[in-house]
Amino acid sequence: MTLASLTTADWHARAASVRYETGHFIDGKHVDSVAKGRFTVVNPATGNALCEASAGTGADIDLAVASAKRTVASRVWSRMAPRDRMAILAKYATLIEANAERFALLDTLCMGKPISDMVNIDVPSAAKNFAYFSELVDKIDGVVTATAKDAFHYILREPLGVVGCIVPWNYPLLMAAWKVAPALAAGNSVVLKPAEQSPLSALLMAELFIEAGAPPGVFNVVNGLGEAAGAALALHMDVAKVAFTGSTEIGKQMLIYAGQSNMKRVALECGGKTPQIFLADMPDMDTAVTYAINGIFGNMGEVCNAGSRLLIDKPIAKEFIERFIAKGKSMYRAGDPLDPATNLGPMVTASHQARVLSYITRGKSEGARLEFGGSAPELPGAYVNPTLFTGVNNQMTIAREEIFGPVAAAIEIDGVEQALAVANDSIYGLAAAVWTRDLNVAHKTVRDLEAGIIWVNCFDHGDMTQPFGGYKQSGQGRDKCLESLLSYTQTKSAWINLG
Ligand code: NAD
Fold it and tell me: Taking the model in full, what pTM does it have?
């Protein structure tokens, strides 16, 4: 039976018996916290407690980092023959796919993502991510430089050592994969701190890495709250780099931690307020409207690059909005995340639901027009209905702050120059899109938009070769792509005197 053929009842039956661990994974074993603390993980679709997970503290981080450090010192991973490391990572990618059902259930139960999204997007993307980086293991080359005849100079590219990965809850498996895969492929050892809302899939990831044939201690997981376990990892003197995905506020904190400890490298993938520019000459309005709807309501709007600002050219604004309302009002429907037909799950927690609803209240009080949504449906979980505001200007709070929910803000613009000015008037710069038939305008817009990822006549397209990361306060690292792999290495220059 394939996962695609499972019914809601099948998924519920599987959810009732899914096997998972709730502690940490250190030195190749599932372990409890030193201090025995626990925190409650709540299923946001029901509001019921799912489990009690181990609340890691500095003592657990110390054990995990020490375990990783031992593998760095023994070089059991970094000096393994590259083809052997490749084989382990390639096998690991297949194990992720083979365990798709468990991964899908664990993340859906913790954070409410529709099970179909897990099966069709998160799990295959995570597996592809490991497969891509596995293929790069023996392509990390050094160089020999041109020198005068009395010297021979070569540059080695070496791993950094212990890498700490701190990730959010919106794509728990996939965001972890984006950090862990290049770090491991480059020969580093890892300590991963998942978000406290979604602690379970990371433990399965670490367990399967051993099953793939990797040595214990190379990939460790410590669960716990950000200000305890996360801070201890980011402040640790033996961690060479922190790779962080999360909010801009905590991203800034990571830079402070680095300065307060050992000047560790910091890579940041943070928030966004992505503008989608729809110009009057766009190729096909229906397609663009569909992308606009998916771009903000997909994954409940809990997406760093969610297309939350719709910048619509005046001549087409009325028609575009009418079509958006006609289709967008009903395209995403709140429902049981374990129902394969559901495409809108709950917000990750009740407090996040309250936060999103408070932004909606703010939008109304600042004078934006609520076209649809704006409320929570009559369901037990932390749901928010898909919401569209029109009549928004770029100074309103709903146009400036990252809501991280299914809330679209439509702003009318007068031509491409004004669109660019509005698009760039943001502290964020993760992604942007432009829809136009005019090649010159498209290329000019690509140049002038201040964002790390630009889509033309599409949204959210890409593959593993695409650098994913932001300009401005959206961060300063790049995930996926070759550049990401190299960011987990450092160069060593060897100057040999032949004189
Ligand atoms: P968050 O910043 O609250 O938490 C992210 C991680 O940091 C969690 O593991 C958390 O436990 C940890 N953390 C929190 N406080 C900490 C502290 N004081 N010290 C150390 N660690 C701490 O973010 P979130 O709410 O989990 O995720 C949502 C955010 O993530 C959004 O802003 C979203 O845009 C961003 N995000 C960005 C990308 C990207 O690629 N740019 C991708 C996904 C999510």
Answer: 0.98
